[in-house]
Predict the structure of Large ribosomal subunit protein eL24.
Amino acid sequence: MSLLVKPCNFCNRPVAKGSGTMLAKNDGTVLWFCSAKCKKNALELKRDPRKFKWTKKYVKGGIRKK
């Protein structure tokens, strides 16, 4: 992973330099989002990216609980 490309915190797709949205939280963590769709799903709707087929974090067969 180069310094110019960072992964989206929701869908794990690459965010190129000069595009996307960076969010700096009060606790010092930095979140990168490739689109408004990812930002809204993560922050406003508080969704789990492992449940959506359009994300790269999708887990086929569902999420296994212990």
Summary: Helices lie at 36-44. The longest helix spans residues 36-44. The chain has a mean pLDDT of 90.
